[in-house]
Amino acid sequence: MPHPLVEQYEKALYELPEAWRARRPLEDEVAKALTGGRHAAIRGFWRIGKTELMKGALKAACARTGGAAFFIDLRDAEAATPDGIRALLKSSVEKFVKRVGAESVTVDALKPWAALGELEAAIFVGIDELIALKALGPEAVTSLFQTMFSAPKNVHLVLVAHRHQAIDAAFNDLLLCRPDVVTFPIPVLTDDEAITLVNAPCDQQPARFSAEAAEGLAQVAGHRPWEIFTLCLLAARTLPDDFKGEVGVDQIEPLFNLDVLTAQEEGAAVVENYLRVLATAMSPGERTVIDLLAVGGEGEATADAVALLEEAGWITSGEGYALRGTLFEAIANGVASGEIRVKVEPG
């Protein structure tokens, strides 16, 4: 029988109870922008918590105004084409108006939000996985953004804009530079937030991580919530089912070995995500900075690349720049030195 903490950390990874949400203050900031009449763009690489932030912000915006919200995942389009995306937007609005009892409203695929203007309440729409647009050409992407931003005054959008070199320029030009959009890059957690998050699922449980162990887990995870909960889950699986008290550093140190970490599905997913970010999502300039910090050597680190990496939490600055997170540092070092080879799948 697994230790009770296993169920708690599985819940954190796959269900995320409200009390364990790490970024509620940021959710309120996004909601404030929406209820203040602006749209919002949430920026970040894979698995940093963009979708959860969007959902929390929609809920907070509704609480502030008494309005209603729904969200759309662009991956749900039947076809990755402009017409397929517009059909998804249209069907999503139709489902929403039916839910609120306004079935008589007609929805136009070319101006899907116009139907929402007939409702008196504030409407907040979350659009997830904008990265699905990267398969389309520049002309199609521009046209779709025009469609999405043809919104009446009572409709406000929160868009999840993935960081990826293939689409960053388009997002910058078509989304982030708009005066009616407030951009929210997702930061990593502070020291206190990360250490608190480690033990959040341990309330009223027979065991918890010691202060030193919690600090170590936060450091290895790079202060990122998904990685923190993953490492805690793997640590919980090593505990005897009747273990009580504090989990110490000696009990979590074996997890800091890549072979041990990748032996379990959740640990392998973390490593694969880091490799995917390094190999496909970061720009060449960002990769140069990561490689230089990982193994040294020659190369030009541009100020823009450094600023973007620091904003995203991959590097820290103090007496000098350094990679954030022991695990990410190990992966980056392996890739930069050639010890880890990455096969990049097309698309």
Question: How does this model look, in words?
Answer:
- The protein is of the alpha/beta class and 347 residues long.
- It folds into 3 domains: 4-16 and 189-256, Helicase, Ruva Protein, domain 3 (Orthogonal Bundle); 23-185, Rossmann fold, CATH 3.40.50.300; 278-337, no CATH class.
- It has 15 helices and 9 strands.
- The chain has helices spanning 4-14, 24-35, 50-65, 82-99, 138-148, 168-176, 191-199, 211-220, 225-237, 249-252, 258-261, 265-281, 284-295, 303-312, 326-337, and strands spanning 39-44, 68-73, 123-128, 155-162, 181-185, 207-209, 245-247, 315-317, 321-323.
- The strands form 3 sheets. It has a 5-stranded parallel sheet with strand order 2-3-4-1-5, sandwiched between helices. The chain has a two-stranded parallel ribbon with strand order 6-7. A two-stranded antiparallel sheet has the order 8-9.
- α7 crosses α8 (211-220) and α12 crosses α15.
- The protein is globular and about 65 Å long.
- The two termini are 42 Å apart.
- The model has no long low-confidence stretch (mean pLDDT 94).
